[in-house]
């Protein structure tokens, strides 16, 4: 199995735990306060990880375009987290997490449009199944 597949599976496992743990962490506080505390922890963990990482951090390789795209990525991440925490505070974890995973379909469409990545029959069918799952689970 390729390394990136293993990393993606590990990421999915962490993400699954994250939603449930975050919901518990929001008990008695606002979504905004919870998100701020979580983000501070994330920042600390990432700094420690980067410090001890075996990969080289060649700051000289950074170009203006890297800052622009990574800055935009940070902006969209912040927007995603803000609204995810607001939804998590008010809704059920399973429903909020599934609707959030609809981002997969958006990512596929954006990758096709902007990065010219192919949408195969397999990817189209999977996307439709994700959308169907969102509809089924989010209906009361």
Which structural class do you get from the secondary structure elements? Answer: mainly alpha
Query: Strand tally, please?
Result: 0
Distance N to C terminus? 39 Å
Tally of helical runs: 6
Q: N-to-C SSE series?
A: HHHHHH
**Per DSSP, what share of the residues sits in E-state strands of 2 or more residues?**
under 5%
Helix content: over 70%
Q: How would a textbook summarize the main sheet?
A: none
Whole-angstrom Rg: 18 Å
Low-confidence stretches: none
Mean pLDDT: 92
Q: What gross morphology would you assign? A: globular
Tally of discrete structural domains: 1
Word description of this protein:
This protein has 140 residues and is an all-alpha fold. It has one domain (3-100). The protein has 6 helices and no strands. The termini are far apart. The mean pLDDT is 92.
What descriptive keywords fit this protein?
6 helices; mainly alpha; single chain; 79% helix; 140 residues
List the helices and strands and how they pair.
Layout: H1 3-25, H2 31-52, H3 64-90, H4 93-100, H5 103-114, H6 121-138
Give a quick precis of the structure.
This protein has 140 residues and is mainly α. The chain contains 6 helices and no strands. It is globular and about 55 Å long.
């Amino acid at each position: 199995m390729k390394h990136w597949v293993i990393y993606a599976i590990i990421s999915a496992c962490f993400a699954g735990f994250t939603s449930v743990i975050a919901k518990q962490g929001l008990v008695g506080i606002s979504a905004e306060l919870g998100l701020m505390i979580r983000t501070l922890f994330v920042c600390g963990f990432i700094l420690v990880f980067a410090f001890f990482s075996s990969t080289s951090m060649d700051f000289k390789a950074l170009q203006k375009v890297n800052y622009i795209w990574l800055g935009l990525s940070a902006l969209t991440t912040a927007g995603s987290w803000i609204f995810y925490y607001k939804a998590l505070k008010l809704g059920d974890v399973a429903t909020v997490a599934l609707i959030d995973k609809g981002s997969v379909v958006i990512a596929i469409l954006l990758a096709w449009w902007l990065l010219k990545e192919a949408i195969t029959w397999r990817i189209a069918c999977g996307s439709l199944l994700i959308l169907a799952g969102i509809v089924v689970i989010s209906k009361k």
